[in-house]
Amino acid sequence: MSNINFVPDDYIQSNESRRANLMCLVLFSVVMAGLGGSAVAIRIRQRACGAQESLVNAKMAQMEEAIKKFEELQTKRKEMMRTALTTAELLEPVPRSVLLASLTNSLPPGVSLVKLDMIQKEAPKSAADRAAKTKYEATQQKGASEPDVKPSTEKALETRMEIEGIAPSDLQVAAYIEHLGSSVLLSNVALVESKEKKIDDTVFRQFKLTALLSKEVHLTKEDVDQIRAKAEQSIYQF
Q: Which residue ranges of the chain lie beneath pLDDT 70?
């Protein structure tokens, strides 16, 4: 016996059409939810990337500023060296250019000169000179018949130097003082101060030294040429 379907074909097609539409709507909702989630995730990642980019740009700006300051410092240093090397010759018995070249040659790695002052003034009289002057004045007051040798009235000059610079640490400062102390051109090398100085995120030691130019120095032409050649190489090939 054959089965007889009493449901109209239009009703069956209508149900199938509704189910298909419902399925399509569900799939569309799923796709839209996926797209919406992807859009939110992309937006979050974009914001995170933007924040990282801003941070990197800020660090790059700081590094560029630090490099610019360092280059300005080196430019000033080179200008100071060139100016000093071309100044008039000088202070007996050592030319300024030779003295500055010697200071440059003694610099340990990482140490830079920032300022150099040279002051020439009358040297304090020694005990022997004061005694000779006192004896001469006493003789003059007594009216001695025998002529006494009058003490020299020529003023003895000394050259005092104030050296300022920066170094990575106190070890380099101590090494620089040791190098200057062993130089035949200088005497009485002393540390005035050494303090910490921070440039951006880099910490340096800012130091100040004093020294006296030796009075009895005799340099040959070969010594002068060697000192100047070494200094020019250290300056222009920095």
A: 1-12, 84-94, 123-156, 216-221, 223-224, 226, 228-238
Query: What does the alpha-carbon distance between residue 218 and residue 52 come to, in Å, rounded to a whole number?
Result: 64
Structure tokens at 158: 């000394």
What does the alpha-carbon distance between residue 108 and residue 70 come to, in Å, rounded to a whole number? Answer: 18
- What are 51-69's pLDDT values in tens digits? 888 888 888 888 888 898 8
pLDDT at residue 137, rounded to an integer = 62
Looking at residue 1, the DSSP 8-state letter turns out to be: -
Closest CA to 110 of 63, 73, 66, 68: 73
| Residue of 156, 176, 178, 158 whose CA lies nearest to 167 | 176
The contacts of residue 182 (CB under 8 Å, 6+ apart) are none
Residue owning tokens 């003059």: 140
Cβ neighbour number for residue 163 with a 10 Å cutoff: 22
